[in-house]
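Pilot study result, target chain (122 residues):
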Amino acid sequence: MAKKILIVDDIDFILKFEEEILKKLATELQASFEVDMAHNVKEALDYIKDKHYDIMIVDMHLPDGSGLDIAKALKAQNINTAIAVLSLYPEKEETQQYFNMILKKPITPSLYKKAIQQLLSL
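Predicted structure:
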């Protein structure tokens, strides 16, 4: 069964970067990932209304809110999804209670793959 992953970032280049790393990781692990991408909080919230994700990787600063808004919505709905924030400026104190992992941009492909593997094991 494919693991479902939602990536949220407002920069297309970053979304494509993450998608390519996930494709390579799926090949390395002989796994199957179903990846959706959202550009803002509204799109992300629309996705989680209709679909359960195993993992979410969200940017903190989005055009219509923050990754924290998405994490709080997940928690309020009691949705069991491993969620990481990937941001230039992660606010650690505020985010620790809502995110399983805090990642800092820029991130290398090897660190990103390692983070995804850790999130999959949660």
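One observation from the pilot: The mean pLDDT is 93. A full batch analysis is planned for the follow-on phase.
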